[in-house]
Design brief:
Elements lengths: L1 E2 L20 E3 L20 E3 L24
Parallel strand pairs: 1-2, 2-3
Length: about 70
């Protein structure tokens, strides 16, 4: 579990995509307008919480890019 919530982040570091064993990522309540493509390399990611951001684009075809992911609503 990596909790980066409530940090006023505008961008995430590209290196997040290298955290291959990461299962849960909380980036809620930041200032993010988009998510990095490198997040798509997180094959073990099961929970992504990006609520409370300024996201302006959705994942292509679905709000959840990863089949195994749970996206909070």
């Amino acid at each position: 579990m990596l909790d980066l919530s409530r940090n006023e982040l505008k961008v995430l570091p590209e290196s997040i995509g290298g955290l291959e064993k990461l299962e849960e990522l909380n980036v809620s309540s930041n200032l993010l307008e988009s998510l990095l493509e490198s997040i798509g390399r997180l094959q073990n990611l099961k929970v992504l919480n990006a609520t409370g951001n300024k996201l302006i684009a959705k994942f292509e075809g679905s709000e959840c890019y990863w089949e195994q992911a749970k996206c909070p609503t």
